[in-house]
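Name: Peptidase M20 dimerisation domain-containing protein
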Amino acid sequence: MIIEEIYQSYLNFLKEFTAFKSISTDPAFATDIANTARWLQDQLAANGFKTEFITGYDNPLVVGSYIVDPKLKTILIYGHYDVQPPYAKASEGQARMIEEDLWKAEGWENDPFVLTEKNGRLVARGAVDNKGQIALHLTTVFELIKQKKLNYNIKFLIEGNEETGSPNLRHFIEDHADLLSCDSVLISDGEIASGHPVIEVGFRGVINTAITLTTSDRDLHSGLYGGSVPNAARELMKLIEKLYQGTTTIAIDDFYDDVIAPTKEELKNHASFPFSIEHHHRVTGTKKLFSENSLDFYTQTGLRPSIEITGFESGYNGVGFKNAVPHTASAKLNIRIVPNQDPKKTVKQFEAFVKNNTPSYATVTLQLGQGCKPIRINPKSELATKAAKLLTQEFNKKVLYKYCAATIPIVIDFKEILGVSQVLLPFGNEDCNMHGANENFEIDLIKKDIGVAWGLLS
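Structure predicted for Peptidase M20 dimerisation domain-containing protein:
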C-alpha cells in the first residue's frame, strides 16, 4: 500500500518537475534553469530540509540537509535537474516552424514538457534522465520523514550542468567539502539490463570536441567550379573516416597504449549477462551489432574506447536547393575512454591526428571540452551490499555488476575529494530512450524502484 501512496506523490511531483524546460545546453533557457532550481529548493524546504541555493559554479546548485540523529550515518544523494534539448534548433529553412512542429519533427508524440502516461510508461523529457530518478529518491525520503522511518541523515546535491559535463562542479565540491561531508554517496542515473537490476562498477570517461574545416573564404558556384576546387564537406568526411580502422577500431597512433585488456573474470561476468540480439535491435532500432574481435556487448561498451560522430553540418540545408560548393564544414565528436586512459593524453593524440591528416589546402580549428576521467568503483561497500539484497528481493532476479558505457562526471570528483564509498544504482528501463524522442520510464519498474529506495533508506 505504501508503494502506491508514494507512487501517487511521485507522479504529482514529476508532472511539475518535467514541466520546467531546464535545458542546460542552450543559454536561452537560463530563466527556466533558475526557476527549476528554486522550485527544488522549495520542495526540500517544505519537507523539513535545511537548504542552500548556490551560485557561482555555472547553473545554480541546490543542497538540502535533513538530520535525523547526528549519531546516524549520512548518505549524500546526487542528481541533476538539467535535461537534453528535445529537438534540434531550427535551421534556416525551419525558421518559421513553431515549437510543436519542431518536437513532432524530432519524433515526439506529445509535448516533451508535459508528462504523459502511455502504454504503462511515463513519457517526457527528463522522465528518466535524471528528473524521474532523482524524484524517486526525493519523494521516498519525504514519505520516510513523514512516517518517522528514515534511518539515515540525508543530504541532496542536485545540479544543473550534468548534460554539459559539469565543468565547474569539481571546484564546488572542493570549496564545500564540509557541506557535503557524508559516509556514502548514492546515485541513480542509468538503466537496468535485460530486466535485471544493476549496480554499476565503473564508467567510461568522455571528451567532446568540435572540428571546423575551411577550404576557402566563400561558397563557390557548383556548376562553374564543381570538380575543380576542394569541397569542405567532402574533405571533413575524408578526415573523419581516417579515424577508423574497420567498424570499431580507432586508427589514432598510440590510442590503445594505456587501454587495459578485459580480464578473464570480467569477460566471464559479462558472458553471464542475459543478452538477446533481437532485444538489442528492438531497443536500439538498429539492424547490426558491431564489436572488436567478437567481444560481447557489455565488454565492448563498458571496457573499450570509442569515437562517435554526434553532429555534422555543411552547405545549405534549407528549403529547395542552393547549388554551391561549401567552403566550410563542422562536425561534433564524442570520445569515450576507459580506465587507465587519461583525457589530457587522449586530447593530445587527437590533436596530433587532426594536424597530421589535414590537407595543406585546408585549415582546421578544434574546440575541445574539458574531459572527464574513467573510473572503477568498489561494489562491496556496506550500502552497496544492502542494495544488492534489496534488488534481489524486489526483482527476484540476479543483480548484474556492470561497467557503464556512459559517464557521470561527478563520480570521479566524489572519489578524489570526498573519498567515500559510492553506490551507483540505476533505476531506468533499458528502452527508456534517454536523450531521444519519447523518453520514458516504465511505471511497474518505478514501483519496484520505490520499494528498493524505501528499504534502502528506512
